């Protein structure tokens, strides 16, 4: 999908739960929309707020934005890391995908095991980003943005997770009162994306 003048293109895997609220805010800024999808929201949000838009998103995503005018590639991953995003860089090229096999579709990419990534997988059940089980392929860490420009590359984390629970609270079945409003807000925003699925589940209970 692209914006109106085709200067900005997006490849997107995921969901933005608060896209309805963001759409209202963007419409007040003068943006007009052709669809009702959260994908288009990302395009317009990036136009208004650049990479700061990612800190406004409530959701899970792995995405790439390509600016045809500045020849700039922006890769972003959600703050928890629900959606994976793998990257391979070599000879001035950047390959990326939500699965490593998408990168291995290029026969030039070497298929060599990374002992560090393998050790992490056997120890923690998964490798720890940016390490993967293959040499030359890295995983974009959660909550980070990578920007590729001609002759330049920037790596930046756009958000961090603050510790909201004390150790002794982790075993409680009832969340602390201060977290209840956030949980209700999350349910309401998620409902915008899941109501069709919820109705389907209700019909076939």
Brief summary of the model shown:
The chain contains five helices and eight strands. It is an alpha+beta fold.
Largest sheet: 5 strands, antiparallel
**Main structural class:** alpha+beta
Label the CATH architecture of the largest domain. 4-Layer Sandwich
Summed over residues and divided by their number, the pLDDT gives a mean of: 83
Biggest sheet: strand arrangement: 1-2-3-7-8
Q: In angstroms, what separates the terminal alpha carbons?
A: 37 Å
Q: Quote the beta fraction.
A: 15-25%
Poorly predicted regions are 162-174, 197-205
What can you see in these coordinates?
By secondary structure, this protein is of the alpha+beta class. The protein folds into 2 domains: 8-165, Aminohydrolase, N-terminal nucleophile (Ntn) domain (Glutamine Phosphoribosylpyrophosphate, subunit 1, domain 1, 4-Layer Sandwich), CATH 3.60.20; 166-205, no CATH class. 29% of the residues lie in helices and 24% in strands. It is built from 5 helices and 8 strands. The protein has helices spanning 19-28, 38-49, 100-103, 115-124, 180-203; strands spanning 8-16, 59-67, 72-77, 86-90, 93-97, 137-139, 144-149, 152-157. The strands form 2 sheets. A 5-stranded antiparallel beta sheet has the order 1-2-3-7-8, with helices on one face. Strands 5-4-6 form a 3-stranded antiparallel beta sheet. Helix 1 crosses helix 2 (38-49). The longest helix is centred in the C-terminal third of the chain and has 24 residues, at 180-203. It starts with 7 loop residues before the first strand and ends with a helix. 23% of the residues are buried.
